[in-house]
Amino acid sequence: MGDVAVGARSGHGGEEHRGRPVDAAGPGTDDAVTSGSDSPVAGGDGPGDGQPPTTGPGPDDGTPGAKKQRSFWKELPILIGIALVLALLIKTFLVQAFSIPSDSMQNTLQEGDRVLVDKLTPWFGSEPERGEVVVFHDPDNWLAGEPTADPNAIQTFLSWIGLMPSAEEKDLIKRVVGVGGDTVSCKKTGPLTVNGKALNEPYVYPGNTPCSLDDSGGQFTVKIPEGYIWVMGDHRQNSRDSRYNQSDKNHGMVPVDKVVGRAIVKAWPINRWGTLPVPDTFDQDGLNTGAAASTALTVAPEGLALAGVVPVALWRRRRAQAAQAR
Q1: Which of 161, 211, 276, 302 is the most exposed place for a label (fewest CB within 10 A)?
Q2: pLDDT at 87 > cutoff 90
C-alpha cells in the first residue's frame, strides 16, 4: 500500500512492435508511470502499444479517497466532550430534570417521580401563570428541618450536567394559585377563591378539602404584590406551602426571580408519563389573562430544539454533497 508501480520498458533496440518501428530513442526508454497494477505484457493494451497511459486514483495521489479516516477511539473523547457540553447547555438554558422529594403534590405527582422543567421561557421574560406547577428555590428557609439529600461525587456530577435529576436540596415544587395583583382567599373548608372566583379543583388529593380548618395559616385572605406568586400543594393537608410560611420575610409569597421554571412533563417512571397542563378552572372569564403565555411556555422548548436541529442537518447534507462532487 502506498507503492507506485512503474511501467515495463517498451522494447529492445532494432525490434519493431506490431509492425511499427521502435521509438528513435532506442533501448532503455521508459513509458509513463502508472498508479495501478503492473503494465500489460507486450502486444496487449496499455502503454506498451503506444496508447495513452491509463491512470486512476492511488493511495498517495492527494485525492479525497486517499485520506485516512480517524480512528473511532481517537474520536470518542471528542464526541463525549461535545455530548457533555450540550447536556450542560440544555440543563442550564432549556430543560432540567427534577426528582419529587415528598407527597405534597399528590396525586398529580408522587414521591420519586421525575419531571422535566422548562428553563427557557423565563429567560425571555415569561412569568408563572395561575395553575402551573413550578419549581422554585427555597425563598426563606421553608425547608428548615427537612431531610437533605447526600449524593455521591458521580451523582453530583451527573446532576450538574443535567443527565440525572437535580440533587439540589433547596428546591421546592408547588402549584401557582395566585400571581401579582390577585387576591386569594380560603374560608372554612373552601372552596379556594381567586379574585372572588371559586375554583373547582379536581387535582386536590382525594379526601382533602381545598382549605384547612386550622389557625396556623389554613384560613387566610392575601393580596399578592407584583413580582410575587402564591403557591399551594395539591395534597392540601400535607403541604407546607405559602399558607404556612406567612411569618417569613416575604409573608409566604415566592419572588418570581426565585422560580426555576415550569414543570411540563412527568418523565419517569414510564407508566406515569404525561404532561402537566393548566387545569380548566383557571380559564374562567376575568380570572386568567395569561393563557397565551402559558401555551408558549409549553411549546417553546420543543420548537427551539427543532429550530436548532434543522440548520445542523442542512450543513451536514451540504458537506456530504461537496465530498461526493470531488
Answers
A1: 302
A2: no
